[in-house]
Amino acid sequence: MTELVDQLAVSGNLAxxxxxxxxxxxxxxxxEYLFEQARATRRQVKKDVxxxxxxxxxxxxxKNNCKMCGLRRENQxxxxxxMDTQGIxxxxxxxxxxxxxxxxxxxxxxxxxxxxxMSEVLTELRKHFPKSKIILSLGxxxxxxxxxxxxxxxxxxxxxxxxxxxxxxxxIFPANMSPLLKKQRLWQLKELGYHAGSGFxxxxxxxxxxxxxxxxxxxxxxxxxxxxxxxxxPTPRTPLENQRSGNGEMTLYILAAxxxxxPDAMILASPTLDCVLKxxxxxxxxxxxxxxxxxxxxxxLLNRYGAYxxxxxxxxxxxxxxxxxxxxxKERGLFQ
Length: 336
Prior knowledge:
- By secondary structure, the protein is an alpha/beta fold.
- It has one domain: TIM Barrel.
- The protein contains 14 helices and 10 strands.
- An 8-stranded parallel β-barrel has the order 1-2-3-4-5-6-7-8, surrounded by 6 helices.
- The longest helix has 19 residues.
């Protein structure tokens, strides 16, 4: 198994059978060695310079009806909200005041966020935060929309493909959504000059090792600049609320493999890992991640956003504390 890790580190890829073997027969020894190689690659390529991104959940409206997401259109228990420009600026000011200069604007598929509206938002953000980087995670907008945002100054775009397997896609996502269109949008973002990224959840219902392999190969083929691989969290009042959570250890394992496959990528430590593992986000850095994704400390806002339930066991997770999380990373010799 360690030989497979060495092959992955040298070539950046493995044949299908070999990669499947690496995932199926994961063990403590292989995991530790894979993590070591992932950290070595990050150290070599990134010089262990880590980033912090602040996530701003600007809207929980969504036109889609995905079976696993708490923002789904038919969830009548969600208290919907939509931030105005001033509200978005205030959230970014909080992060900037804590030394965070990259903002991830995230929402459901909200049709209210038109090209004209978001142009005004980004123009104001550029005025207030001229040195900041703005990442968009607003869903499947058309080419003209993303071209205009790029011209104003958007740095990156994150569009989760969900699952690369078409049959699996049909079991999770509504009929009006297309896996092919999602892939086309990803290539489109890359062609427009974005730092373009994607991702998926480990442990989704009906997911197999073969599906995960397809997801990983898509990220490799696409040469994703941004990668977010999280753990599936069942969300109340969704058709899949009674499913079990994804495996956090497997998620870290896949993150480490992706660091070897995509050495230059910005690999996010997703807050979903805190829901399935103690200090899950911090442990992502043991597996080669280089971006700490932070949420706002506003617990009411996080609960209203509700894409998934922030809960570890029976305990609800509090809002993020930047000093605490960076302190934990400093204890690991990072952020010094």
